[in-house]
Structure formats: C-alpha cells, structure tokens
Design a protein that fits this description.
It contains 17 helices and 46 strands. The protein is α+β, with helices and mostly antiparallel strands and 816 residues long. Among the domains are: 129 residues, Bulb-type lectin domain (Agglutinin, subunit A, Orthogonal Prism), CATH 2.90.10; 129 residues, no CATH class; 88 residues, 2-Layer Sandwich (Phosphorylase Kinase, domain 1); 213 residues, Transferase(Phosphotransferase), domain 1. β12 and β13 form a beta hairpin. The longest helix is centred in the middle third of the chain and has 29 residues.
Length: 816
C-alpha cells in the first residue's frame, strides 16, 4: 500500500511542481523569463491576473504585460515596452540594481523601469488588484505598475497630480498614441491630443473644471476605488464624479477604465463567471461626442487631415474620407486622407478650371478651422463659381442660405454634424486624374536643361560619324518600337466601344496572367464569374477579377458600361472599390479590391454566431454605404439587390457593398424609375410586383430584411417544415415585436440578450424599413441616424405583408 502511494506521488509530483510554478505570484532577484510563447511568468494569488510576455505583431515580437488570466479573449491592462517590442527569444530578469530588465537575444537593453533610489530591489509580486510591485529587502515598494499606468486604470488604482493615461496608437499597436488624460498641477483633469513625436499638447477636449482661484475645490487625485466608483477627489474632501451611472459590482464583474486609441475614455465590465462567450460591455464614456469636442488649431484631430468624423456606437468616433479621396495608410482609417487627383495653382494655370474640375457634395459635413475666406451674402451658384475660379480652394461650405466658406488644404477637424442643418460641403475634385495613374510624360527642356542639351549635342558632333549613325539608328528603332506598343495598347484601351474613364485599363492578357489563367474562382452570379488574381500596381496587389459572360452580349455591354461609368466615380469605405477594367474584343472584365474575409452570408449562416458588436458594426457600415449611394453621389444609385451575398468583408471585417450589376441609375432631377423586377427572393420590396414606380426605398426594404438577418443570424426565408410559423423572417420578427418576445428572435445569443436596448432599437428600425407602403419607410440617411443614436426611433406600425402574401411573391420568378 505504501509503495503504491509513493508511486502515485512520484507520478503527480511533476504536475504539482508545474502548477505551483505557473501559479506563483512572487519572484526574487535572479529570476528570469523568456519571450517565446503565450504564457505567464507570475499569476496573482486569486488567479485573476497574469504577468509575463504576450505575443505582438504576428508572434514575432513580445510585450511584457499584465492581463486578465481568466478571460479567453486576452485583455492587456498594462504593458512595459509598447514603443520597443521584444523580438522572440528576448528575456526579462529581476535585478537588484535595475529592477526588471528586458534584453534582446543579442544582449541589447530594451526597457527598464525608473525605480526609487532608496534601496536595492529584492522581490517582485503581482497582487490581486492587478498591480505588479517591486520591493526592497524590507518589502517596501520601490516601483509599481499602478504608479506608472499606460492606457488603463483598475479598481483601487489612484492617479496622482502629474500622472497620466496615454492611449495606444491603435487597438493592435501598443506604441504611444496621440491622446492623453492628465491630472494637471492646478487640479484640473483634462483630455487632449498631442503632436507626436514632440508631445506638444493641443487644446483640451474634456476637463472636469476641478480648479478654483482659492484652490479649495481643486482636484488632488483621480480615484477608481475598489467599489467601482470613478471620481476626482478635491482638496476640500469633495468629489467630482464622472457619471451618476454605476459601472457595476466588482464582486460580479471585472472592471476597467481605458483611454482608447481614438481618445474616448470608456468604462467596461465583464462577468467574472465566464463561459467563454462573454465580451467586455461598455457602460459609459467621456466625452459624449468627441467628433464635436476635439478640435485642434496646431495639429490633426481624430481623423487626421482631410478626413471627417462621424459618431459611431458607444460614442466612439469613426473616420471617413470625402469622395475621390483615399486613406494615406490603407491600414490606418484614422491616419488622414489624400486626394486621388492633382490640384494646385501650377497644374492648371494655363487651362480653364471649369473644364478640369467638378464638385462632389456631402451634406452636414464641415472642416471648421480650415477657412480662409467668407463670402456673404452668396448664393450656392456663386459659391460654386468662387471656389472653381480659386486655385487655392479645395472645399467650399455653403450654409445658412447665404454664407460661403472657402477652405484650403490640408482640411482639419472634419466632422459630420446634423446641427449644420443641411449645409453642403462642395468638394472640388479633378475630372481627369490620369496624371496619378499613367507614366510621366517626357521632360520639358528649358532653362538649365538647355545647357545639358547643348552639351550632349557637342559630344555627338565631336564623335565619329560611324558611332553617330549607330546611335541615331538605335534611337529610331527604340522610338518606333515604343510608338507601336503604345499605339497597340491605345487601340485596346481606347477603342470606339470603350468606356471613357479615369480607371486603369488592362489588357486581357494582363488579367489572364494575373489570375493564372482564371484558375481560382471566388464566386459566380448571373452576369459572370469572379476570380482571384495578383496584379503589379507599384506593388503586388491581390484583386478580384469579374469576368462577364460573353454570351450575354447586349446585357453584358449594358451592365459593363453601368459598372465602369458609375462605380469608377464612387469612393466610400463601405463600398468595394473598382480599380480598373478590360474591354477587348468580346471580353468585358472588371478589377476590384480583393476582400479577404468573404461574404456576410458565410459569416452569418456559419457556426458559431459572429460577435454581437461585430454584427452591429457591419449593420452601421452597410447603412452608411447606402446613404452614400442614395444621396452623396453625383448620380443617385439604387443598388436593387442588397443581400448578405453582396456584402463583402475586408481584412478588418468592415462591411463593403459589392455587385453593382443590377444598379438603376437616376439623373439628379429624377426621383424614381419604372423597370422590370430585379433582385433576390426574400429581399425584394413589394412595389416590384405591383407595377409601382421604383425608388431608393427598395434598397431600404432590402436593408430592413438584411438587418433582421444580422440580428438573428438566419436566412430571410426558411421553408423547413419544423419552422413553418417562422418561415418568413420579416413576418416572424413583427410577431415577436408585437408580443414583446424578442428573445425568441436571438434564442441563445447571450451577447444580444445582454444588450437588450440595442436589440429592441434594431428590430424597430428593421420593421420601419420593411413597411409595405414605401412612403412609410425612412430614407437610408434617417436609418443611419437612428442606428447611431442621432435620431429617436418611434414605435413602428406592423403594416407589413403577412406570410401568405410574402410566400406568394417569393414564389414568383426573379432575375437573380
């Protein structure tokens, strides 16, 4: 019996040792830890927090971090070396002189803390508050993470005067960002942006005002106490609370306050008893509208230069580029925008500007601090003419019926603001931007270049006649070859039937080679097949090439011209961008951005359900894209086939509307069109079947159905026998809303059930969109405003077709 017991102890001893090692909360001088995986060095006694290296940038680099140990989705609350990530194989060691020391594999010091000079470091410990403390031989603290915060505060943490929170550069980049929360020496708690790398502080966009001339009410500490209260403690022992809303009980929730990379201080809670499906829920945030609050006069605002800010969910800002502008860095939507064309006084000094430029229009968008001229009183036509004739004018804002504000580049502090009461941003864009796409022209010889020409001529005349003849002959052959090649290419790209456009024109051979002989198919529809390809456009770019069916000659030609002429002029973060085309013989091909994450249909109908907040983000994005198509394009566009299969997802799961093969184009003075039935069963508005004039409200109907699918993660029509009463999603959703049983719609989706307020709002919006009478449906702009909380959502009437009617219509043959 004793031998058996000893044998069991020997078997379990290694496991017990590993468990004890991974759960230890203290380290001593000489202990070290290597950066080579996702593991912890020490764990707090309760097991709530872990300290060690976290992978960063594709597991090639690591951050010395503190994170929540019991949450599957890693949430880092403190990090040491955000500006200098450690390569794989680096090491952190506890030393007596420097405390913690991170060294690279080649021995280079990457980071050390500034420890108190009072004594040598002897110990390190991670406590249950999430605070890692360095101690001397008497266990006195000489440095702690709570006193050196990054972007997050935890319960029981205090921020003293002069201390600050600093945002990250982005969600995934832990380098220093441009936003700060600081308790100033005068006691005022403020938030502002800084101009990196100097650190110059711009105007405060938030402050508590806890400063008075007698200083009795001045702030002395920012406190996040152990019960979850967050406030400024003042000198007179009073408090300045951030919110009268409770952030939650620390016994039931993990709590944190984080200064996000976009400058919004947000308070989050997460259930402690996690089943793996929970996420961090925002409870409240400051400021309430950073798009309006954060203006700077000596730097860039949230969205960088030339971009503009719209308020998204949870008071978080989202950035967009104006039409015909694109992101400076495609991977950084907050980094500013650049024009996709050339504009300036030198470029057009010899031409009539009205022949070179046109205007794109945005409503309720402004760049408040970029004005250089105000004209008043002025009509809109006068405002357009004044900007057109002024080579410095990039945008003119016409507002209040008589005011014209001219603005020059770079545009700063851009924002969408319904308080502008319909003000128009007249964005001057170049009609022909080929100078950014084609090769540079031959140099113009003048000034000093003439001296060079004389020198070259002298050399030629001084050379032997034979060499001159050889050189001249070679030049002639070269020019002849280039001329023939250019002529051939021009004949392909500028044939009589070709579409006049500023997009890149490809040859069929280029696209055949780019797609490896049209080998990898991404998808297919009624008008053609989409293939994956790689094209050299300065760098290797992955694209989606849509090859239209050649046997549909007449229809193909029509769809091709529609797509190239219309989509080539659109530019919005929630639309798939057209990069080029091919019109060669009977071949018609379109080259689009490649969307790496497939279709929304694949995401919604898969298992498990996608994250609730991600679904909300996608719904908002699709709505914004439709607003752009309906109202912000120079030619109004009705998509006519909005469905999950036509919503593509980019690298960051941003929703992008695709497939404009079914668009119906309206002139600016038109509001509706009569046409044959187009679209897909389950998403088609009933006016198609009633010979009624078709307006942009057909897209509103389709969006309403799509929104219900996003909410429920199921198809709009499900004719399975066991789901007979739920077969038509629109009808079932209205029944659930009327009966007050919306939980049936989302079934086991705990994230949606916990966000009941948004769930109810989204269902109400969807029901408004699917009203049988198109005049009752809101516009997509109104839908977008209701989604983003700008407009209230009134109770909708359930005046939608019943299941029998919908079933009858859906049984009809549709063009798909």
């Amino acid at each position: 019996m004793a031998s058996s017991l000893n044998f069991l102890l020997l078997c379990f001893l290694p496991s017990l040792c590993v468990f004890a090692q991974t759960r230890r909360s203290n380290i001593t001088v000489g202990d070290s830890f290597n950066a080579d995986g996702n593991s912890s060095w020490v764990v707090s006694p309760s097991g709530d927090f872990a300290f060690g290296f976290q992978p960063h940038k594709n597991n090639s680099f690591f951050l010395l971090s503190i994170w929540y140990a019991n949450i599957p989705n890693i949430t880092v609350v403190w990090y040491a070396n955000g500006d200098n990530p450690a390569p794989k194989g680096s090491r952190v060691q506890l030393t007596a002189a420097e405390g913690l020391k991170i060294t690279s594999p080649d021995g280079q010091t990457l980071w050390t803390p500034e420890v108190s000079p009072s004594g040598a470091v002897a110990h390190g410990a991670l406590n249950d508050l999430g605070n890692f403390v360095l101690q001397d031989g008497s266990f006195k603290s000489v440095w702690e993470t709570f006193g050196n915060p990054r972007d997050t505060m935890l319960p029981s943490q205090i921020l003293e005067k002069g201390e600050k929170l600093s945002s990250r550069k982005s969600d995934a980049d832990f380098a220093r960002g441009k936003f700060r929360l600081v308790l100033q020496d005068d006691g005022n708690l403020v938030m502002h942006s800084v101009n990196l790398p100097s650190g110059y502080a711009n105007e405060d966009y938030y402050d508590t005002g806890t400063v008075e001339s007698n200083a009795s009410s001045a702030g002395i500490q920012l406190v996040f106490n152990k019960t979850g209260d967050f406030y400024v403690r003042m000198k007179n022992n009073g408090t300045y609370p951030f919110s009268d809303q409770s952030i939650g009980s620390p016994t039931q929730f993990y709590l944190r306050a984080t200064l996000n990379f976009d400058g919004v201080l947000t308070f989050y809670q997460h259930p402690k008893r996690s089943t793996g499906n929970e996420t961090w829920t925002p409870v409240w945030s400051q400021p309430d509208n950073i798009c309006k609050r954060q203006r700077v006069s000596e730097g860039t605002s949230i969205c960088g230069y030339n971009g503009y800010c719209t308020l998204g969910e949870n008071s978080r800002p989202q950035c967009q580029c104006p039409p015909r502008y694109s992101l400076l860095d495609p991977l950084d939507p907050y980094g500013g925008c650049k024009p996709d064309f050339v504009q300036g006084c030198k470029e057009d000094e010899l031409s009539q500007r009205k022949d070179l430029y046109e205007f794109e229009v945005l409503t309720d968008v402004d760049w408040p601090l970029s004005d250089y001229v105000l004209q008043r009183p002025f009509t809109e036509d006068q405002c357009r003419s004044a900007c057109m004739e002024d080579c410095f004018c990039a945008v003119a804002i016409f507002r209040s019926g008589d005011s014209c504000w001219k603005k020059r580049w770079p545009l700063s502090n851009g924002q969408y603001d319904t308080g502008l009461n319909g003000a128009k941003a007249l964005i001057k864009v170049r009609k022909d931007n080929s100078s950014l796409i084609g090769p540079p022209g031959p140099p113009i010889i003048k000034g000093k270049n003439q001296d060079t020409l004389v020198l070259v001529s002298s050399v030629l005349l001084g050379s032997s006649a034979f060499l001159n003849l050889v050189l001249i002959g070679a030049c002639c052959l070269g020019f002849s070859f280039i001329y023939k090649l250019q002529k051939k290419r021009t004949s392909v790209c500028r044939s009589d039937s070709a579409v006049e456009t500023n997009l890149r024109c490809f040859t069929y051979k280029e696209l055949e080679e780019a797609t490896n002989g049209f080998k990898e198919e991404l998808g297919r529809g009624a008008f053609g097949v989409v293939y994956k390809g790689i094209i050299e456009m300065g760098t290797a770019v992955t694209v989606a090439v849509k090859r239209l069916n050649t046997f549909l000659v007449q229809e193909t030609e029509k769809e091709f011209k529609n797509e190239v002429n219309v989509i080539g002029q659109t530019h919005h973060k929630n639309l798939v961008r057209l990069l080029g085309f091919c019109e060669e013989g009977t071949e018609r091909l379109l080259v689009y951005e490649y969307m790496s994450n497939g279709t929304l249909a694949n995401l919604l109908y898969g298992d498990p359900k996608p994250n609730w907040n991600l679904r909300l983000k996608m719904a908002f994005g699709i709505a914004r894209g439709l607003v752009y198509l309906h109202e912000d394009c120079s030619t109004q566009i009705i998509h006519c086939d909005i469905k999950p299969q036509n919503i593509l997802l980019d690298d960051y799961f941003n929703a992008r509307i695709s497939d404009f093969g079914l668009v119906k184009l309206l002139n600016m003075n038109q509001s509706r069109t009569n046409t044959g039935i187009r679209g897909t069963k389950g998403y088609v508005a009933l006016e198609w079947f009633k010979s009624m004039p078709v307006t942009a409200k057909v897209d509103v109907y389709s969006f309403g159905v799509l929104l219900l699918e996003i909410i429920c993660c199921r198809r709009s029509v499900d004719m399975e026998p066991e789901n007979e009463e739920r077969a038509i999603l629109a009808d079932w959703a209205c029944d659930c809303y009327t009966a007050g049983s919306l939980e049936d719609l989302v079934e086991e989706d705990q994230e949606a059930l916990q966000d009941k307020k948004n769930l109810v709002k989204l269902v109400m919006i969807a029901i408004w969109c699917i009203q049988e009478d198109p005049t009752l449906r809101p516009t997509m702009r109104k839908v977008s405003q209701m989604l983003e909380g700008v407009s209230e959502v009134p109770a909708p009437p359930c005046q939608i077709p019943n299941s029998e009617t919908l079933g009858h219509y859906h049984s009809l043959t549709l063009e798909d």
